[in-house]
C-alpha cells in the first residue's frame, strides 16, 4: 500500500512480516521502495504491524526525563569518559557543515569485543541511571535491527536481485555496526539562525527516525530538474547548486521516516541517491533516529543487480560510465566520525 503525503510516499512493510508471504503484495512493497529510493531517497515506513505505538512513546518519556536532569548529572556519561563517540554530548558539541548544532544527545553504538576507550568508536556505551532506560532502549534497538534486515530484503527484490545475490548482500549487513541517537532540542538562543541541525546526508545504510509530533521540524530537499530552489520560511539556502525544493517531512502516525545513506549510493552506483535533510527548530522536541549500517568490515561496492538496471546511456550521463569506488565501511565511518566534533568538520547524524 502506497500513497503520498507532502510528496513523500508511505510504504507498508506488513507483507514482509507475514509468516506465509503473499508474493504479489511483497512485490508491490518492493517496487514502491525502489521507486521511492530512485525519486526521493526518503519515505515513510508504516510499521504499525511491527511495533506497539506505546513503545516509542515510552522512549520519548525516558528521553524527556534524562534531558531534564541537571547538567552535571548528564555530564556523568559525557563522551569524554569513553571513546569520545559513545555517551552524552552537550548542546552545540555536535557539528554539521562547520556549525555547532543546537541539540544535545546520547550516542550509542554496537557493542564491540574487547572494548578500548583509547581507540575511536571502540569504547563502551554509557547509559543514564534512570530505571528502565537501558532495558527499553535495548528492546527498541533489537527491533530496529530486525526491521533493517527486513527492509534490506524487500529492497533486494525491488532491485531484482537473485536469491544468491541477496544472501551476499545480507552478509554485509547481518552484523550491523548500528548507531542510535537520542536527541533533545531545547529552546534556541535568540542569536541563532533557526537550525537545530544543518543540511547533511546520512552516510550509512538505512535510517529509521521516530520523532515526536512536532510539525515542520524535519525538512527534505527534493531534487527537481528545472526547478528554482525555494526555501521554506526564508531559511538560508543549503543545497548548493542543486535544483529542487525543501519540503516538510512531518511525523505520520504509526510510521518512521526512513532514508537511505551513502552506502546505498555506492551499492547502486548512483541509481539511489542519499538526500539532503535538515532539522529546523520548532521548540522543545525529541527525536530517536536508529541507523542500520553495514558490518564494520563490509566491503561496499556497486551491486551487479543495480548495474543491470541502469541503461547504458544513463550510466554515461549519471556517472560518466564509471563505477563508484568501493569502500570498507569501518574505514569510511572512522574518517567521518573524526570530523564530527570539530568546527571545521561535517556532521554525520541528525
UniProtKB/TrEMBL annotation:
Molecular functions (GO terms): metal ion binding; oxidoreductase activity
Keywords, sorted A to Z: Iron, Metal-binding, Oxidoreductase
Lineage: superkingdom: Eukaryota
Gene3D superfamilies assigned to the protein according to its UniProt record, in alphabetical order: B-lactam Antibiotic, Isopenicillin N Synthase, Chain
Source organism (scientific name): Suillus fuscotomentosus
Protein name: Clavaminate synthase-like protein
Record InterPro entries: DIOX_N (IPR026992), IPNS-like_FE2OG_OXY (IPR044861), IPNS-like_sf (IPR027443), Iron_ascorbate_oxido_reductase (IPR050231), Oxoglu/Fe-dep_dioxygenase_dom (IPR005123)
Similarity section: Belongs to the iron/ascorbate-dependent oxidoreductase family.
Domain Fe2OG dioxygenase: 176-294
Amino acid at each position: 500500500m502506497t500513497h503520498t503525503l507532502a510528496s513523500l510516499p508511505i510504504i507498508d512493510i506488513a507483507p514482509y512480516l507475514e509468516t506465509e508471504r503473499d508474493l504479489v503484495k511483497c512485490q508491490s512493497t518492493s517496487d514502491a521502495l525502489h521507486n521511492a529510493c530512485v525519486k526521493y531517497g526518503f519515505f515513510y515506513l508504516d510499521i504499525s504491524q511491527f511495533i506497539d505505538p506505546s513503545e516509542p512513546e515510552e522512549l520519548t518519556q525516558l528521553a524527556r526525563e534524562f534531558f531534564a536532569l541537571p547538567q552535571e548529572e548528564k555530564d556523568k556519561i559525557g563522551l569524554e569518559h569513553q571513546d569520545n563517540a559513545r555517551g552524552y554530548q552537550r548542546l552545540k558539541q555536535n557539528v554539521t557543515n562547520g556549525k555547532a548544532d543546537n541539540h544535545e544527545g546520547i550516542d550509542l553504538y554496537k557493542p564491540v569485543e574487547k572494548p578500548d576507550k583509547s581507540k575511536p568508536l571502540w569504547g563502551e556505551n554509557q547509559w543514564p541511571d534512570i530505571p528502565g532506560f537501558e532495558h527499553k532502549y535495548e528492546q527498541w534497538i533489537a527491533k530496529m535491527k530486525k526491521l533493517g534486515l527486513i527492509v534490506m530484503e524487500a529492497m533486494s527484490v525491488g532491485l531484482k536481485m537473485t536469491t544468491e545475490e541477496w544472501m551476499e548482500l545480507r552478509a554485509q549487513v547481518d552484523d550491523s555496526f548500528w548507531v542510535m541517537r537520542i536527541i533533545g532540542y531545547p529552546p534556541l538562543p535568540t542569536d541563532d539562525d533557526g537550525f537545530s541541525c544543518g543540511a547533511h546526508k546520512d552516510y550509512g545504510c538505512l535510517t529509521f527516525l521516530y520523532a515526536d509530533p512536532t510539525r515542520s521540524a524535519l525538512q527534505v530537499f527534493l531534487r527537481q530538474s528545472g526547478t528554482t530552489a525555494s526555501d521554506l520560511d526564508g531559511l538560508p539556502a543549503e543545497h548548493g547548486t542543486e535544483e529542487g525544493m525543501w519540503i516538510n517531512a512531518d511525523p505520520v502516525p504509526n510510521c518512521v521516516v526512513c532514508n537511505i545513506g551513502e552506502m546505498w549510493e555506492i551499492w547502486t552506483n548512483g541509481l539511489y541517491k542519499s538526500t539532503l535533510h535538515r532539522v529546523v527548530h520548532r521548540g522543545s522536541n525529541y527525536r530517536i533516529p536508529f541507523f542500520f549500517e553495514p558490518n564494520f568490515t563490509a566491503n561496499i561496492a556497486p551491486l551487479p543487480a543495480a548495474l543491470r538496471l541502469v541503461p547504458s546511456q544513463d550510466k554515461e550521463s549519471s556517472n560518466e560510465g564509471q563505477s563508484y569506488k568501493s569502500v570498507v565501511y569501518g574505514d569510511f565511518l572512522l574518517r567521518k566520525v573524526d570530523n564530527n566534533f570539530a568546527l571545521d568538520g561535517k556532521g554525520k547524524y541528525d
